[in-house]
Amino acid sequence: MATCIPREKSSREAKDTLRVLFVASECAPYAKTGGLGDVVAGLSKTLQQLGHDVRVLIPLYSLIDRTKYGLKPTTSACVHMGGSVEHWVGLQEARLDDAVPVWFLDYDAYFGRPGIYDGPFGHYQDNAYRFALLSKAALQVCKDQQWIPHVMHVHDWPGALVPVFLKTWERILSPLSNTASVMTIHNVGYPGVYHAGVLPYCGIGWEYFTRELFEDHGKANLLKAGIQFADALTTVSPTHAKEILDPVGGMGMAPYLNNRRADFFGILNGVDYSHWNPETDHHLPARYSAEDISGKAICKRALQEHFHLETTDKLPVFGIVSRFAHQKGFGLLREALPRALNSMLMQLVVLGNGDRDTENFFRWLQSAYPGRVGAHIGFSAEASHLIEAGSDFLLMPSLYEPCGLNQIYSLKYGTLPVVRATGGLDDTVQNYNEATGDGTGFKFWEPSSRALHYCIGWAVSTWFDRQQHIVKLRQRAMSQDFSWSKSAGQYIDVYQHALRKKQAATLG
Ligand code: ADP
Ligand code: GLC
Q1: What is the spatial distance between Cα 342 and Cα 331, in angstroms, rounded to a whole number?
Q2: Domains of the chain listed by start with CATH number
Q3: Tens digit of pLDDT for each residue in 146-195?
Q4: Closest residue (by CA) to atom 9 of ligand 1?
Q5: Ligand 2 atom index nearest CA of 36
């Protein structure tokens, strides 16, 4: 893995304005299932604040509130797929936080559905086709608008065909021949493996259906192709970058990432503190800061009332805000939580949805521990902010975690993360030192329910036996700074790296 280019080396180049198009399936607040949406929004805004010309392209899902966000139709385009297939698409536009222009790809047959990736019967069967259209439209729209980006920055498998088209789609190449591509891998566990029929659909020849490029057990692996074609690659924390170069952590992608080591960088996600800050958070019943934390007790009481828990400041509240996915360690939680609730004085609130068994488990847990466990099965931005603020501890026992944003948000809210030391969780949480009271949270290493149980017990005993350390840990947690500006600088360095690669390839 390449280390990030030293700032001095590229500071002259970084002054130059770059045109950057983000191509993604999510962007908060319009459409989001997890941290990807937050990253697309926060990073694009920061790059613009640094003087770059950044735009974002996402699909116009029917869940997006066009009136609330002031979407305006701008233009239409004809996107040529493969053979004689063409799609006429519309384009609408809005400004993210009155700043970054966001383009919404309007194609009802693919995106006029309530879900982003899934409907009531699971994953949409045509996901590969939907996001292949998004990727091809990205190039077509830039060409039509005569807005030629220096870099197309694509996110996960839904954008992974952009680097492929930038190198193979001949009729579009002339205006975009100098455009470089950067692909960020947010989650290697979702590579986007689909029926190979997507290749002819979008005009990619069978000569690319090889083991090195697309082929994966007879199917097309979009992320793998992106890894091979992108000029530079990133993932969302330095530790996770090392993990996915390893055969176990790489989940099948390690050999291909190892081939691209020189162009692969781990950059920690940042936080948009204009949305995640207890001093200004409009979702909360009271605001607070490290200097005056009294409002946190009001948030805790409101949280307990909201989730029908006993209202007391004596018991510690543990919070969970999460997609219910295996990755997040719900197997461990399902074993550890009943034991913990039986043996420890604690409360628990859970917000999330996804895996049906996990949803049912938390419904059961709530009924088995009335007044001590509250569960909200669903998605609610409002409730997620209240949990970050009103809880005392945030549980994230992930089996793997590329970065994780909730634990970074919780630090700012003085809510101490209890995490498994993996990926970005390891990079962002400093383990509690019982002798000195230093640290920002509680870590465990072994991916077992036993280790999780002990770690919850460690947090609970610190709550009851060493309150002075809780105060100290909170102060330190709240003073951590994970704002986007540092990481955005590293992305600019990666964009420059990709541009140099592209230039060298064009000249060579
Ligand atoms: P991941 O992207 O793997 O889901 P992250 O920790 O990076 O994990 O980001 C999760 C983001 O999604 C956070 O902004 C979190 O608040 C949000 N989130 C997850 N589940 C829910 C939910 N059920 N309701 C509201 N927000 C949620
Ligand atoms: C992914 C990862 C998460 C990361 C997020 C944003 O979904 O699971 O760890 O924080 O993307 O990069």
Answers
A1: 18
A2: 11-270+485-507 (3.40.50.2000), 294-482 (3.40.50.2000)
A3: 999 999 999 999 999 999 999 999 877 789 999 999 999 999 999 999 99
A4: 35
A5: 6
